[in-house]
């Protein structure tokens, strides 16, 4: 692990990339810690804030799929830099908003920033050999995900103490977008897509994930349905605010689904008819199982990070700044837990067993969090939240220790689909929370979904690196 502290070669690329991820998450999660301040400033209701939190993650679903395709085609350097530059626009628009409609539209656009995570998975997979890729992706994800915790710790203080007044939240949110914009130039000038002795591998066809059997094509089609369902949930929530015209959103979701299914057929049917060589095949089942594992790990993290400051504030009657600081402990574990999950996957001999145990652990953790109420001592509550958070984020690290080993040339698209499922999980869990308005039920629902996911991991095949990756690792040793 000490070698990862280096600032040379592949380690330099890793650190520049996790910081890009950190900034995108810092901007993406600039709403939750400022939710009560925003509500007070613009006279918003609890339902208004719940809707904005859902809008914050919903568009990330198609955005991650789209970014995965762009990534495999154009490379991580250009895609990540472009995303950082574009992040400034919705941040500035949200900061200038005065109506619920403006807040909704700018927050939907800001959801695209959350797709940046996908880019680094491919970048790390290009620069690190199979025996280190889990640890490297864990560091990338853990340090980058810490952006949400940093937002919870820093933004309330900046908004209330530095800028002050009812509009301090506006300057705080605007600054997160400006930081992303400036770093985009740094990243573009400082990295390249692959090591000097390598060529960036691209898919032969673009528009959908390449699969290698007819059964896998059917599975790919089926796996589009939950993503469309999550988008339909968003349309349902928006109807109450934007009126019956939002029903056209269902048509848009149906159209997007039809395009995805048509592209999947167009990209894959010709090669399947011709026959896919044995050495080029992979099991799409691997992708589906990782999708569901990330739904309950990252999906629950997004949902819990979005509601936890307010949960602490209302359950223990805390000031907003203190509630945000304590809630940041959940995401703070990213610094340690996600790299540890990747390291465990690299070192413990079975990536499958590591992932299964961690997902089962988070199921138990959320079941216990469902018992939390104001009678619990805050110390005991925080200990439980941190323990559950470790399993959640180590599980995320274990998922992405496997993703680069499924099929190299479409790693971006696989990471995009896995990431989209994580965001879909967040939309589903936040919708449950907005409907039941009971934190205990919310935590129990996540625990039940995690138990189902842990069962599916039993059917995961132990991943093996491709021959090209083995040859590169041998040549570097």
Explain this structure.
Mean pLDDT is 86; it is low at 473-477. α1 runs antiparallel to α7 and α3 packs antiparallel against α11. The radius of gyration is 21 Å and the shape is globular. With 477 residues, the chain is mainly α. It has a single domain (2-192, 210-470), classed as Up-down Bundle (Growth Hormone, Chain: A). Helix content is 77%, strand content 0%. It is built from 20 helices and no strands. The protein has helices at residues 9-28, 35-42, 46-58, 60-74, 76-95, 100-110, 117-127, 130-163, 168-190, 214-222, 224-242, 248-274, 284-315, 320-332, 334-347, 351-369, 378-402, 411-436, 439-456, 467-476. It starts with 8 loop residues before the first helix and ends with a helix.
CATH top level is Mainly Alpha
Tally of helical runs: 20
Biggest sheet descriptor = none
Distance between the termini: 17 Å
Record field, number of beta strands: 0
Name given to the CATH architecture: Up-down Bundle
